[in-house]
Amino acid sequence: xxxxxxxxxxxxxxxxxxxxxxxxxxxxxxxxxxxxxxxxxxxxxxxxxxxxxxxxxxxxxxxxxxxxxxxxxxxxxxxxxxxxxxxxxxxxxxxxxxxxxxxxxxxxxxxxxxxxxxxxxxxxxxxxxxxxxxxxxxxxxxxxxxxxxxxxxxxxxxxxxxxxxxxxxxxxxxxxxxxxxxxxxxxxxxxxxxxxxxxxxxxxxxxxxxxxxxxxxxxxxxxxxxxxxxxxxxxxxxxxxxxxxxxxxxxxxxxxxxxxxxxxxxxxxxxxxxxxxxxxxxxxxxxxxxxxxxxxxxxxxxxxxxxxxxxxxxxxxxxxxxxxxxxxxxxxxxxxxxxxxxxxxxxxxxxxxxxxxxxxxxxxxxxxxxxxxxxxxxxxxxxxxxxxxxxxxxxxxxxxxxxx
Length: 404
Known about the structure:
Blueprint: H1 2-24, E1 31-35, E2 41-48, E3 51-59, E4 63-69, E5 84-86, E6 91-95, E7 98-103, E8 112-123, E9 126-137, E10 156-164, E11 179-186, E12 204-209, E13 216-223, E14 228-232, E15 235-239, E16 244-254, E17 257-268, E18 290-293, E19 303-306, E20 309-311, E21 314-321, H2 329-348, E22 370-376, E23 380-387, E24 396-403
Parallel strand pairs: 3-9
Antiparallel strand pairs: 1-4, 2-3, 4-7, 5-6, 6-7, 8-9, 10-11, 11-15, 12-13, 12-16, 13-14, 16-17, 18-19, 19-21, 20-21, 21-24, 22-23, 23-24
């Protein structure tokens, strides 16, 4: 009998301790941080009246930090029913217990921006909340010219003036195949359509970027014994074909050498497929327009990208190579296949097995086309199609892609 009493006392004590442990468990979200850009981002977390506040300070150079809440099962969507919060200068994504924060680099802002985001999670029968407070201080990212002997009045800056999303949709971040516009200003941020006085110091000013084969002269002065010819572009635009960061440079040449240089970085973030967004992007019902897409710093290929169409709930579009008028038919076919394959490989890696992939597509053209290469990413299926010649159409290769 005593043995049973002892066991009962032990069981009661264990249950009591378990109950106390549950009562003493924190009733607020416990955050940890993986700061992947410590030079540009600082992080702290405080608790007031049981509500955690995570404070993130970010410089204009941007970066990444991942917050994790390990005492909940899963974070709820950031904004309504969406897992992504995007205010242009901050992109927050919930993924399980993690809040992934990305801050694109921005070297043109001249202000401090603030935002507060509420994050919640279910913890048993309770809903726990936290506040994410973000401050971006852009002033520290104002371009500083290279030190040297060039007087300030002859220095200049490279500025990203704007970008035009594909089909003129309202997106805040540039993607591949969006048109980006650049400007040159003086050292004091003044922009002029006329030829500014600071150009007199240089023989030419050249735009280039790391990893790109070509350059563009935005200012050139050609002097002869009888005249001086000046070419100047205060603003210019270009497309780019690949997502990621591009480091641009504007170099002023004098007597054959670089006398002064300034730099700018831009970030291209792909949507569902390059510039195409299957959810928020525009569509046309009939007669899609084909938009010319070129890169001034890589003139090897030019493309035509079609408007987005929709058929039976599936969105689709196509990309074609703009061929060389002087090339033979065989040369044009070979170049098209190589250029479109290179475009896909640069963005999405090697093609996958194309066997029996016709059934995966819902909007393939009715004519007798063949899937030569196949790629598949999170939201999109892509096929490199070969269309044989017919009485009214010439033989060609082109990309056809659809939403999943």
